[in-house]
Amino acid sequence: MASNTKLPQDNLTRRQYKDDVYFMSVALMFAKKSPDPSTQVGACIVNEGGEIVGVGFNKMPDGCEGKFPWKHDTEDEDPLNTKGMYVCHAELNAIVNKTSVDVKGCTIYVTLFPCNECAKLIVQSGIKNVVYLSNKHKERNGTKAAFRILDEASTPKNIICRQFESKQDVRDLLDSIDPFAE
């Protein structure tokens, strides 16, 4: 196939498709670095030239590791005893850890659809594309608000948000990595 052949499932070129698989794999590898025992999330920001300019995973703020609980919000009635009040999300860390002056026009690959707070950061930072792997929290109010934020911001800012659908290709790529190959 020629490199500009369109793929039927989401109208991407073969090159865009391969890039999606690669960059989502990077986001997944960074998710594995998360110390969260229940939800590991990774993010990878890519500029228009196809270069990675930021990566992140969900973790406690620097210097606070081990000082706050990793309990899930449903495990305790007091929100001060749960991770939700303290954890820095993967998207925030990727934006903060950027290696470029800004991330305007970039694409962010995230393993979990952004929450409302991260959606605001994405819009304010000028990111133009959001590619997410899972939307397992789609019924939560924070996720519904995030959809609304990204949808409303897409009119003046042209933000494109889409779900990554080739999970098997990511598995195949990650399985093909052999650090001991000669």
Automatic annotation (TrEMBL):
<dbReference type="InterPro" id="IPR035105">
    <property type="entry name" value="Deoxycytidylate_deaminase_dom"/>
</dbReference>
<dbReference type="GO" id="GO:0005737">
    <property type="term" value="C:cytoplasm"/>
</dbReference>
<dbReference type="InterPro" id="IPR016193">
    <property type="entry name" value="Cytidine_deaminase-like"/>
</dbReference>
<dbReference type="GO" id="GO:0004132">
    <property type="term" value="F:dCMP deaminase activity"/>
</dbReference>
<keyword id="KW-0862">Zinc</keyword>
<protein>
    <recommendedName>
        <fullName>Deoxycytidylate deaminase</fullName>
        <ecNumber>3.5.4.12</ecNumber>
    </recommendedName>
</protein>
<keyword id="KW-0479">Metal-binding</keyword>
<keyword id="KW-0378">Hydrolase</keyword>
<dbReference type="InterPro" id="IPR016192">
    <property type="entry name" value="APOBEC/CMP_deaminase_Zn-bd"/>
</dbReference>
<dbReference type="GO" id="GO:0009165">
    <property type="term" value="P:nucleotide biosynthetic process"/>
</dbReference>
<keyword id="KW-0545">Nucleotide biosynthesis</keyword>
<dbReference type="GO" id="GO:0008270">
    <property type="term" value="F:zinc ion binding"/>
</dbReference>
<comment type="similarity">
    <text>Belongs to the cytidine and deoxycytidylate deaminase family.</text>
</comment>
<dbReference type="InterPro" id="IPR015517">
    <property type="entry name" value="dCMP_deaminase-rel"/>
</dbReference>
<dbReference type="Pfam" id="PF00383">
    <property type="entry name" value="dCMP_cyt_deam_1"/>
</dbReference>
<dbReference type="InterPro" id="IPR002125">
    <property type="entry name" value="CMP_dCMP_dom"/>
</dbReference>
<comment type="function">
    <text>Catalyzes the deamination of dCMP to dUMP, providing the nucleoside monophosphate substrate for the thymidylate synthase/TYMS. Also, part of a nucleotide salvage pathway that eliminates epigenetically modified 5-hydroxymethyl-dCMP (hmdCMP) in a two-step process entailing deamination to cytotoxic 5-hydroxymethyl-dUMP (hmdUMP), followed by its hydrolysis into 5-hydroxymethyluracil (hmU) and 2-deoxy-D-ribose 5-phosphate (deoxyribosephosphate). Catalyzes the first step in that pathway, the deamination of 5-hydroxymethyl-dCMP (hmdCMP).</text>
</comment>
<feature type="domain" description="CMP/dCMP-type deaminase">
    <location>
        <begin position="18"/>
        <end position="150"/>
    </location>
</feature>
